[in-house]
Write a sequence for this structure.
């Protein structure tokens, strides 16, 4: 086991693409750290840099505090699970798993013992003589895990290992990977573009965009106190609604968020928790509302805003209702328990809970309440 | 626009298929005609042979085969041709596999130039290098030794073999080698345990195509193997003209040609599936 760090990591490819634009990341000993972000954000490059499959243009890769930038992948004592598993198609499952042991000169007895132990852990004992093409996606995934685990490396690196599985299997394997990681206690860096995977698996999650880490925190903090509008939009499904608004000072020293024709007064406690907000009085601002941060009702109800439903989606235990807001000129998506209470074309009122609002600088997207409420 | 009735549409389809088949059958017959003429000629006695007849005159005989095989020494030539084609193809394929792996997996200065030079060498005909090749072999004292033609043939086959295997290996999934890198496997182990086994279709194709080329080659064995013991089938056939026997014995010559192409047909039939896969796979995956 070991800690892993990227310090000022930069990687520019000969094509001119800058995949990493100064990444700082600290993965603690035994931690499961998830790197999440959209395609091309640099998460896989960061992982490959840790593995030694990419050389950094600048910055350091450290394992257990030691600079490993000059070491070959084999010398870093890491194991990697690839997106497409990268199982050797010409070898049986057993030989696939023991490949790394053979390459490192383990005795035949040790290979057999370790492969058998791992097969028990992963429940693939019956598959040991098969070739990869005879396995299902889930079984291949397990074999790829086995190949990583068997060497007992200091660090596991996983590059979107579940993205080729169907939805049901993905949920199952998600739990399996977390269970195995907890049991072994091996430091793990896990890359995914799926924010649900990131939220459910990561002890901490680093959200990446354009070659930078936007925020690295626990899943709960990422959801409750996003560092910027990108993180706010990326984490959570459906994403946070971002509306153009304004902050205004009201009589008695309070503040109010103005959305279209609606004025949402903030309590003095709320205003005090967001000291930066006062300096934005009179300025444009981006206001964030989570899909579960408001309610809808009849058009003549107590809502602050009005709008017209343009889509209502039934998801089983909950419903998504998409509303075109009047006066604000934006669409907002809400998540509600049970069946949809409104149909497309209905005119509705939208009641926003001011306590559930997030505020972001309109130009930079930086959150204005970074002291957090989580 | 009104649709054509189904019956007419079907008739048009059948007609199109028929004309397609008629065209292909005609082309196939034209291609097969020389083979047919060769085969019936080889089964006739010299005095019965009529070059313009499409049907054989009876009786048919296998005497020409016996004559070619024993009297003209085709048995020995057959062995020589087999040794030359198999040995040179094996050497070329083996060396090309290593070179192709190097080109795909190693990044080194001058790699692009080397690759381009190698492709360029495919365009150099053997006739251009035959004189210097003979001089070198002569200096080495290898002329009229088995190794000379085998080495020369392998050398001439090498650029094509490297090109074919490089095209294939380049498209093997990169992650397999990266996984092996992380697993701590040496480049040699990756070559032996991953690259070679996964390139089996391309290796088979290279081996068969090279062997066929070497089998059919006249120039190299003619120049470097100048003794009777080292005559190959192609050289033997070339010498089987009127210059040697006084008259042109066409049925005997045709029997010799049939003997010389039988191994090629057998090799092609055995390797057919893998051959086509190997030739097309590199570019498509």
């Amino acid at each position: 086991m070991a800690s892993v760090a990227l310090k000022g990591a930069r990687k520019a490819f000969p094509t001119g693409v800058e995949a990493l634009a100064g990444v700082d990341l600290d993965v603690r000993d035994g931690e499961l750290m998830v790197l999440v972000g959209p395609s091309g954000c640099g998460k896989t490059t960061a992982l490959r840099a840790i593995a030694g499959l990419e050389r950094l243009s600048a910055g350091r890769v450290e394992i257990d505090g030691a600079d490993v930038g000059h070491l070959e992948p084999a010398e870093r004592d890491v194991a990697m699970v690839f997106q497409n598993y990268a199982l050797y198609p010409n070898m049986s499952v057993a030989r696939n798993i023991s490949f790394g042991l053979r390459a490192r000169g383990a005795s035949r007895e040790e290979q057999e013992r370790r492969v058998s132990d791992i097969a028990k852990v992963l429940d693939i004992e019956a598959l040991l003589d098969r070739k990869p093409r005879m396995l299902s996606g889930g079984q291949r995934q397990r074999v790829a895990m086995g190949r990583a685990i068997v060497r007992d490396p200091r660090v596991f690196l996983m590059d979107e290992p579940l993205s080729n599985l169907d939805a049901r299997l993905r949920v199952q394997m998600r739990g399996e990977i977390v269970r195995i990681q907890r049991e072994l206690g091996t430091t793990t860096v896990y890359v995914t573009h799926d924010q649900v995977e990131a939220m459910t698996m990561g002890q901490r999650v680093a959200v990446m965009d354009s070659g930078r880490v936007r925020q690295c925190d626990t899943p709960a903090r990422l959801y409750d106190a996003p560092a910027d509008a990108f993180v706010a939009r990326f984490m959570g499904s459906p994403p946070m609604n971002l509306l153009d608004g304004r902050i205004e000072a009201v009589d008695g020293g309070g503040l109010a968020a103005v959305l279209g024709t609606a004025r949402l007064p903030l309590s003095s406690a709320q205003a005090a928790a967001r000291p930066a907000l006062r300096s934005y009085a009179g300025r444009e601002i981006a206001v964030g509302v989570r899909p579960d941060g408001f309610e809808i009702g009849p058009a003549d109800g107590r809502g602050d805003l009005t709008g017209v439903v343009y889509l209502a989606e039934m998801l089983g235990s909950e419903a998504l209702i998409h509303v075109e807001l009047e006066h604000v000129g934006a669409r907002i998506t809400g998540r509600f328990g049970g069946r949809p209470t409104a149909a497309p074309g209905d005119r509705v009122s939208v009641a926003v809970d001011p306590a559930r609002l997030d505020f972001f600088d309109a130009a930079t997207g930086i959150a204005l309440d970074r002291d957090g409420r989580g | 626009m009104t649709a054509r009735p189904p019956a007419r549409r079907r008739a048009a389809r059948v007609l199109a298929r028929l004309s397609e088949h008629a065209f292909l059958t005609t082309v196939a017959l034209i291609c097969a005609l020389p083979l047919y003429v060769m085969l019936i000629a080889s089964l006739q006695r010299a005095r019965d042979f009529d070059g313009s007849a499409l049907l054989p005159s009876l009786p048919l005989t296998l005497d020409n085969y016996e004559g070619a095989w024993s009297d003209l020494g085709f048995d020995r030539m057959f062995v020589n041709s087999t040794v030359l084609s198999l040995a040179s193809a094996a050497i070329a394929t083996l060396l090309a596999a290593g070179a192709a792996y190097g080109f795909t997996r190693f990044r080194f200065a001058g790699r692009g130039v080397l690759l381009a030079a190698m492709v360029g060498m495919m365009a150099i005909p053997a006739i251009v290098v035959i004189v210097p090749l003979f001089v070198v072999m002569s200096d080495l004292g290898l002329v009229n030794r088995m190794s000379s033609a085998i080495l020369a043939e392998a050398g001439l086959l090498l650029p094509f073999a490297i090109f074919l295997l490089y095209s294939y290996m380049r498209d093997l999934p990169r992650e397999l080698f990266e996984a092996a890198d992380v697993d701590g496997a040496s480049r040699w182990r990756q070559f032996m345990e991953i690259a070679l086994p996964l390139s089996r279709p391309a290796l088979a194709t290279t081996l068969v195509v090279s062997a066929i080329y070497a089998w059919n080659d006249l120039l190299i064995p003619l120049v470097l193997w100048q003794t009777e013991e080292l005559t190959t089938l192609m050289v033997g056939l070339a010498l089987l003209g009127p210059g040697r026997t006084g008259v042109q014995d066409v049925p005997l010559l045709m029997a010799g040609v049939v003997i010389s192409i039988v191994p090629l047909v057998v090799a092609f039939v055995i390797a057919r599936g893998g051959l086509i896969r190997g030739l097309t796979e590199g570019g498509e995956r």
Q: What stands out?
A: The mean pLDDT of chain B is 85. Chain B is about 75% helix and 0% strand. Residues 205 and 275 of chain B are 5 Å apart (CA to CA).
